[in-house]
Design brief:
single chain, 914 residues, 33 helices, 23 strands, 18% strand, globular
């Protein structure tokens, strides 16, 4: 996986040299964050937070794709893949199984300046000990085997093909390549195809020896852990390691300033985009701070200069401004997604004019203050969210210094208009950009690698129905259930005066913002007939102004409160998500009530929203994944046009949206909106009684005028089908295979069905499908399964989906069918069942250790009339699942002849049924 876009707030200026220190004495401390340094050079950053239940660990090496040897681009990223293929002490399978058994969620990413290995786990000292021992082991030595190199090279090629199919990132890469002449930051992190294939095991071994050692690494721990115990564990595993000789210094020549605009062209997909790329100094340069305020000032909605100049008049459907800064350079991206029939030349001219106007019309004090307000709450957000803080610290430590984000926020508060004006003029207004054009079409050459040789057929399963069941090792289910019920007992469940369901979870002392989710439910099948387009526009327009506040005033007020607010309509449901610092919660709730209950539906806002929606429907982008999803809906849906559950084709939805008037939106709102059938969940540090009283005042008398009946999907047989459909041109295709069946969450079979799905394809590195299609066949970078067993109704399904090289869909579908059939006929082994139980229950423990994850459960549980006690029941069911039960159900449900298989790529083959 690759990540190279770094927020302007995360990459900052270089740290001064620091003396070595004893591991027990911090070198530097800010807030509750402390840095330690081992004698071998390992940097350790610890930020304990006892108010949460999870632990985040990031091990970052200060070497990324910039360190790739000349002619061997992609080396750092390819090594990242091999880090999961095993060490002299354990195989790759033992490595991933060990992480899964302990409920450790893990990932890795490579960027230009660093390679990062991330993990999330519950607050278990033994799991942390295992993880750190493993990371020390991987830092010391790896298994460098020819078969692993061949396999992972092909996997990276699949990843490369998928990345090339994403039009906007591909355009960004071309802009960087033009700026850096395909050197340094212009060379893709994934590498070039021909160079990647030439990388040898000896070159990877040398790269690992040069760059993977303590002095080149930063270890970050955030969340719930004991600092003294963590330091002792770190010292035990890492202190004995020796640092190798320093790697040769990177020589990176910055590109000369362009004297005339350079234009790059990309024809791909169905979007039309014009973008400008301006070079920026390295992350360590203080000048980046002054231009960072431009992202909001130019692209913020609705006040941004680009938004006003391009979106409001109808030239563009959206604009963006992104500051990308890295350890040795960067660039500022300004772009616009064109409206239908808009002139590319006009949009480019306006973009250039607006940037040049920074010289003669610098940011005003009001614009600067608005940008400062947006950034002012960043510190509190970082410190209250260990996962976000871990990312901030890891990225900043490599780019220059982990403490600099905090110092930079302080300097930002003192930033004046004159300083901003000087730097905007020098770095942007008077600079020459690289211009990028993304045009709809398929003119770009699509490189697809030859399919790898077909490996030998998979070995038959060794499952035996007579193997004795084993207890769930490493998971104390009764103790876990007690923790769940303790959480449930801390939740106040009830209703408002009008019947709206409410779940309040007070967390006294929590530093995290209060999280809120509100669902409005309205209508029934009869009253919502033909109303999908109206419902969508009504929900989208809500935030555009109230009877007391303009859209701009609402946006400004949310930002001033340090809050967040989103409104998303979906048929007969409107979902509102919000968060707020605890002291501002009453004011945000009052603002939310104003937005929902007193909307103004401004005519200009209606015209703009409708125009943007029509533009999106006029020429919808249809990459392989979207084309496959659309084909699946067309085959499986049984709803007539007009039914609120029906997903119209883009041309049908276009006609429906085009016919909607503002009067219809007003009438829909007045008839349908109200809270009595909805749910509201709140989690954080608040007084439950006070909040309940305020909610009753704000929403307890709001009644929908339309009849309401919950729409519960019912299972209907789906005819088997294998179908190829055409998508927008892309180097990779997308596969979706689905089995529909009747099941409900209360069924005694439910837990065993989840186990079946988990073993079949849940994890792309560890499941049967993942091992076969990613590791052995090298046909898919990220193929995985999912399962839906509803708590209401019985419309259940098991789904398998992922990418494949264009033209290889039938081969992938055959292998998927073969693996599904094998599981059904040969069953699973007791070892597979035991590992699946450990992994599933470990994942569930991690969910119950995270307040945000618990909050996300609450609204759904209210709609299903269940509580967290349902999790206790399901835990017991998982613990009781037997091998015989799983194998019996696999034979019953995994019927390959009933599968729906959709393959989407640029060159569809014939369509057939099983």
């Amino acid at each position: 996986m690759v990540r190279f876009i770094v927020s302007a707030w995360l990459v900052l200026v270089a740290m001064p040299g620091l003396v070595q220190a004893d591991t027990r004495q911090p070198v530097m401390a800010v807030e509750h964050i402390a840095e330690y340094r081992l004698a071998n050079g390992l940097t350790v950053i610890l930020a304990p937070d006892s108010s949460v239940g999870t632990l985040n660990v990031d091990l970052v090496y200060r070497s990324g794709s910039l360190a790739d040897p000349q002619g061997r681009s992609g080396t750092a990223h390819l090594l990242e893949h091999l880090m999961f293929k095993g060490t002299p002490q354990r195989s790759g399978e033992q490595l991933t199984d060990g992480l899964r058994q302990r409920g450790i969620q893990f990932n890795a990413t490579t960027s230009y300046d660093r390679t990062r290995y991330s993990a999330v786990l519950s607050d278990d000292p033994q799991a942390l000990d295992y993880l750190l021992a493993l990371e020390a082991e991987r830092m010391t030595a790896l298994r460098f085997e020819p078969a692993a190199l061949q396999a992972e090279t092909e996997v990276v090629l699949r990843e490369m093909e998928r990345a090339q199919g994403q039009a906007l990132p591909a355009l960004t890469q071309q802009l960087l390549a033009a700026s850096w002449q395909d050197q340094g930051y212009g060379r893709p992190v994934l590498g070039h195809r021909d160079e990647l294939r030439r990388i040898s095991l000896d070159e990877l071994r040398r790269f690992h020896a040069l760059h993977y050692h303590p002095a080149n690494a930063v270890l970050v721990l955030t969340g719930k852990f004991d600092k003294a115990a963590a330091l002792a564990t770190i010292d035990r595993h890492f202190a004995p390691l020796r640092s190798t000789a320093e790697a040769p210094a990177l020589v990176l020549t910055e590109p000369a300033a362009a004297q005339a605009p350079v234009t790059v062209e990309l024809k791909q997909g169905k979007q039309w985009v014009v973008a400008l790329s301006y070079p920026l100094p390295a992350a360590a340069d203080e000048r980046n701070l002054a231009v960072s305020v431009l992202a909001d000032a130019l692209a913020g909605e609705p006040h941004g200069r680009l938004y006003q100049a391009l979106v409001v008049p109808g030239h563009a459907s959206a604009v963006y401004a992104v500051q990308q800064v890295f350890g040795r350079g960067g660039h500022y991206l300004f772009g616009a997604l064109l409206e239908h029939e808009a002139s590319r030349e006009t949009v480019q001219r306006i973009l250039l004019e607006q940037v040049k106007l920074l010289a003669t019309q610098p940011l005003s004090a009001a614009e600067l203050q608005r940008s400062k307000t947006v950034a002012a709450h960043s510190k509190a957000q970082w410190l209250s969210n260990p996962a976000l803080l871990s990312s901030v610290l890891a990225e900043s430590a490599v780019a220059g210094g982990w403490s600099l984000p905090f110092q930079r926020l302080e300097r930002l508060a003192q930033l004046d208009v004159q300083t901003v004006s000087v730097q905007n003029r020098a770095l942007l207004a008077e600079a020459v950009p690289v211009i990028g054009h993304l045009a709809a079409g398929s003119g770009a050459a699509v490189a697809v690698s030859e399919p790898p040789p077909r490996p030998v057929a998979p070995a038959a399963s060794t499952a035996a129905a007579t193997e004795p069941a084993q207890p769930v090792a490493g998971v104390d289910v009764p103790a876990f259930n007690q923790r769940i019920m303790a959480i449930e007992n801390g939740i106040t469940r009830g209703s408002l005066n009008n019947g709206m369901k409410v779940a309040l979870r007070p967390l006294p002392g929590s530093a995290r913002p209060v999280q809120g989710t509100l669902n409005l439910r309205f209508g029934d099948l009869e009253s919502l007939w033909g109303q999908r387009a109206v419902a969508e526009l009504a929900g989208t327009l809500l935030i555009r102004g109230s009877q007391h506040s303009s859209y701009q005033q609402i946006v400004d007020r949310v930002n001033q409160l340090g809050a967040g607010l989103s409104v998303v309509p979906h048929g007969g449901v409107l979902t509102v998500r919000f968060q707020s610092p605890k002291q501002n919660l009453p004011e945000l709730l009052a603002l939310l009530a104003e937005v929902l209950r007193q909307p103004s539906f401004p005519a200009e806002g209606f015209d703009q929203i409708k125009r943007q929606r029509l533009q999106a429907l006029r020429s919808p982008a249809e990459p392989p994944a979207a084309a496959a999803s659309r084909a699946l809906r067309q085959h499986t849906e049984r709803y007539a046009p007009g039914d609120i559950r029906h997903h119209p084709a883009p041309d049908q939805m276009y006609q429906a949206v085009e016919a909607v008037s503002r009067d219809q939106v007003l009438a829909f709102y007045q008839k349908f909106y109200g809270t009595q059938h909805g749910e509201l969940a709140l989690s954080g540090d608040f007084d439950a009684e006070q909040v309940q009283a305020q909610l009753n005042t704000l929403f307890g008398d709001w009644l929908s005028q339309a009849p309401y009946q919950r729409i519960v999907p019912r299972h209907e047989p789906v005819a088997a089908l294998r179908q190829h459909v055409k998508s927008d041109p892309a180097p990779s295709g997308h596969f979706i295979g689905r089995l529909h069946f009747a099941a409900n969450g209360s069924d005694e079979d439910a837990a065993a069905l989840f186990v079946i799905e988990h073993i079949l394809g849940r994890h792309p590195l560890a499941s049967r499908l993942g091992k076969r299609l990613r590791e052995r066949e090298q046909l898919s970078y990220d193929l995985r399964s999912s399962i839906r067993i509803p708590a209401a109704g019985d419309a259940a399904w098991l789904s398998i989906q992922g990418d494949y090289p264009a033209g290889q869909g039938a081969r992938l579908a055959d292998i998927v069918a073969e693996e599904v059939r094998l599981l059904a006929t040969s069953g699973i082994s007791q070892a597979e069942l035991s590992l699946a139980k450990q992994t599933i229950l470990g994942e569930r423990q991690r969910v119950m250790a995270d307040d945000q994850s618990i909050h996300n459960l609450l609204v759904g549980q209210m709609s299903e009339n269940v509580t967290l006690a349902a999790w206790v029941t399901r835990n017991d069911a998982f613990a009781a699942v037997t091998q015989e039960q799983v194998n019996t159900l696999a034979r019953r449900y995994l019927e390959v002849p009933r599968m729906t298989e959709i393959m989407a790529d640029a060159k569809p083959e014939s369509t057939s049924s099983h």
